[in-house]
Amino acid sequence: MDEPERHNVRPASDWLQDTIDAFYAPADSTPIPTMLWEKTRSKVAFRKGEISVWAGVNGHGKSMFLSQVTLDLCHQQERVMVASFEMKPVQQMKRMSRQAYAGREPTVQFLQSLHSWTDGRLWIYDHVGAVEWRKLIAVMRYAIKTHGITQFVIDSLMKCVKGETDFDAQKDFVNELCAFAQAHNVHIHLVHHVRKGESEHHVPGKFDIKGAGAITDQVDNVFIVWRNKKAEQDKKGDPTCFLACEKQRNGEYEGKFGFWFDIESQQYLESVNAAPVRYDLSANSASRK
Ligand SMILES: Nc1ncnc2c1ncn2[C@@H]1O[C@H](COP(=O)(O)OP(=O)(O)OP(=O)(O)O)[C@@H](O)[C@H]1O
């Protein structure tokens, strides 16, 4: 056996302080990043060393939802790198600007403030189209070293692995991402698709996620974003989007949250009567206001 391996066999008591901290977070520790809706805040967290899969049907709002989550992470002073291979950077920033402004037409002054606020918080990997996943991992390693990235958003898995049925390659990529998240103590958000169900009104679950079942087995958290087109048509006040937390390895909550998508601001609202909220770019609190 190699010498370093021997040192990895340690008494359990070596982790005493870590275990105490896991129960009673030290006063000077930074809170675990989360999403800033009241209803989700204490239930779901994006822990370092973990990977979250965000799955859903095409066009059901995975990227849109994650755009608001990215703003929330920036608001909590996380250093986020978005690698969206499906959308040009300007399109991403346009969406995010509407969400941050809480309206359809942000003023030039607001756009300037937002884009200086994102300095030190948000980076975009400027690459649209397919990418070789080993190259992406190299870029991520560089981004950690140079910019201290703490959260990555990869949109989507299918742009990183050739062939929808190459389950082994998908498994290898996700396996490598899991190891990467742990080795560098960062959180990775990975967008993925679900198989076509019998209709758009069928709410997908984790067993509908495309590709190898090993993907959901390997990752720590699984979220499904589902657009409720029936509620959009009926206009009876039911949620127009559901976020289902289908798996959370190190958290106790699993269940569904309802949201109302506001077309003007492109924000997801927590209740039918809620108004979109402009992000306060001068605050670093754990609230958007
Ligand atoms: N709940 C909703 N109600 C109304 N419109 C929505 C809702 N969710 C998303 N949209 C609209 O649908 C469009 C598609 O959203 P988005 O690109 O985020 O989907 P996606 O799931 O990432 O799609 P793809 O898998 O094709 O990348 C957006 O332009 C958005 O305005």
From TrEMBL:
Gene3D superfamilies: P-loop containing nucleotide triphosphate hydrolases (3.40.50.300)
GO molecular function: 5'-3' DNA helicase activity; ATP binding; single-stranded DNA binding
Span of domain SF4 helicase: 25-275
An example Gene Ontology biological process: DNA replication
UniProt cross-references to PANTHER family, sorted A to Z: T7-LIKE MITOCHONDRIAL DNA HELICASE (PTHR12873), TWINKLE MTDNA HELICASE (PTHR12873:SF0)
Name of the protein described by the UniProt record: AAA family ATPase
